[in-house]
Amino acid sequence: MVLALFLTAMGMLLSPSSSSAATGDWWLPTSRPAPDSQINVTGEPFKGTNSAGEVRGFVDAHNHLFSNEAFGGRLICGKVFSTSGVADALKDCPEHYPDGTLALFDYITHGGDGKHDPVGWPTFKDWPAYNSMTHQANYYAWIERAWRGGQRVLVNDLVTNGMICSVYPFKDRGCDEMTSIRLQAKLTYDLQDYIDAMYGGTGKGWFRIVTDSQQARKVIAQGKLAVILGVETSEPFGCKQILDIPQCSKQDIDKGLDELYDLGVRSMFLCHKFDNALCGVRFDEHGLGTAINVGQFLSTGTFWRTEKCTGPQKDNPIGAASTKAEKDLPEGTEVPEYDKDAQCNVRGLTDLGEYAVRGMMKRKMMLEIDHMSVKATGRVLDIFEAESYPGVLSSHSWMDLNWTERVYSLGGFVAQYMHGSQEFSKEAQRTDALRAKYDVGYGFGTDFNGIGDHPAPRGADTSNPVTYPFKSADGGSTLDRQTTGQRTWDYNTDGAAHVGMVPDWIEDIRLVGGQGVVDDLFKGAESYLDTWGSSEDHQAGVNLAKGVTATASSSESNPFTSYRPGRAADGDGDSRWASDWSDDQWLRLDLGSSHTITKVTLDWERAYGRSYRVDVSTDGSAWRTVWSTTAGDGGLDTATFSGVAARYVRMQGVDRGTNWGYSLYEVGVFSG
């Protein structure tokens, strides 16, 4: 094995060099494997920062480079790279030969019979294609073209699903999710080494894995691609639930977060597709939703459960039952029917989930809220607002769009799924005013190798086709049609067949949506790094109310425990103050001396205030209202206001949200 790797490396070093490499162009390798894919881009990639010191470039906030190693290793066919060359990397799965008859997942996800020409290199008759979900779309040379075309940030989400792996008949390895995550992380570092070897040694290639925002800024200022590791899996740290019983502990979560952080992971999802021990999911729609619901039952023993939504945000409609999907269920078991007026997942953020969220904050990691139920997302945003923590991401259009401003107001980052240029431009323009208000850029999530369709061709006869060659968004490079082997792709007739077509897609957006959309995308790298850097710089606020003297209008009597006022200021999130069961009740905190305060957090038990206010005083006699609401919905509320001097802080209840009284686990008071 060592000898084979040595000979392969020597072959790379001694293979014919690109003719332009001899000119000393830093962006071209001194040696590229031969034969290999073409890049079809000329011109120097832009370097440095703009006049304001900001980095420039596009962000692919959601991609899955190595998901061919996930799901048992045979769901996605082809490799990102191979030391044996392109012919080994870009070949179909063995069971797809001779005509795709056994390409089961192709026709499960696509319809039809799944038949296709399995031959990849060098002919590529049928794949990669915009609507093929089971073939490699992230070959390293195609990523290189995306970088040359202006992309400067790539989030590689390590992904798998143990249940999909277990039910898919073709596999060549086990289904443990964390084992797959570790392998994909290793291969990302191996890819970095593979590219470095083409450029003369360690650190010299354009593909740079980064583990902090300042490192990313330096990489981008050099004109290279900053690669960030994320995780998107259904049972992180083994945190599945069976019959609503968690299969992990706080110790498992801490151990898992530490391991992922050591691997270089800086962003992650806590739930994906299936409800787990951490949170409920935002449902998939229609027949696919039913199929995943069946998968959830087979994995956990529970189907999704729904309830009426309490706000404008909704989870996706599940859709009618599918007889195909139900065939996998035990005899006599049926998928539930769901009320159209009850579209929200009952399951929100669990206690273990909240522990994981706070563990990520402690490690300065960013949390992906896409795929979380609206109930879970609402709680996460409540926690982040209470802590002024900006590290929240929506990377591929899987959150309810009504959350967008709350994400921006925290300092978070939003990217849209790689929709067709017309749909993408329409959504970008809908939120243009919000981006202007918060002075942020925009991103896209390609989700390549993520089992999803990509932009279809608009047709060569469209009134405004992409015209080749065209200039990159920065104007410094020229891009022609992309060729690999005997196949040349044209965006007008092939759509977004692989990641190398990202620059062509952006040019199509310019033609359809206008330069303004592209300009916002070009600001994406700076905004993503702003969110990351602010998360790294975050310091937990000092709670001025912890341990102070508390008094109240009343305290509920209970022979087994105490609900005295001090329980809401003891720093213990499990103890609480509870009032008598009437409307006009208050809780008062004495901070001991005057402080300038700007924020009060109130963590409600089920007995919450619908209408209440926050009052402050310097002497305990003259009170001033600094914040109020008539639409309280329980959970964790954050009252923010301009800085005001106060020694005393009071929650004054006006109208209860339940038939019980008012009950608070903890009240926090913070200065600027």
TrEMBL record:
Q: Which organism is it from?
A: Streptomyces capitiformicae
Query: What is the name of this protein?
Result: F5/8 type C domain-containing protein
Keyword Hydrolase listed:
no
Q: Which UniProt keywords apply?
A: Signal
Compositionally biased residues, Polar residues: 550-561
Residue ranges, compositional bias (Basic and acidic residues): 567-576
The residue range of the signal peptide is 1-21
State the SUPFAM superfamilies in the record: Galactose-binding domain-like (SSF49785), Metallo-dependent hydrolases (SSF51556)
**Region (Disordered) location:** 311-336, 453-481, 549-576
**Ranges for domain F5/8 type C:** 537-672
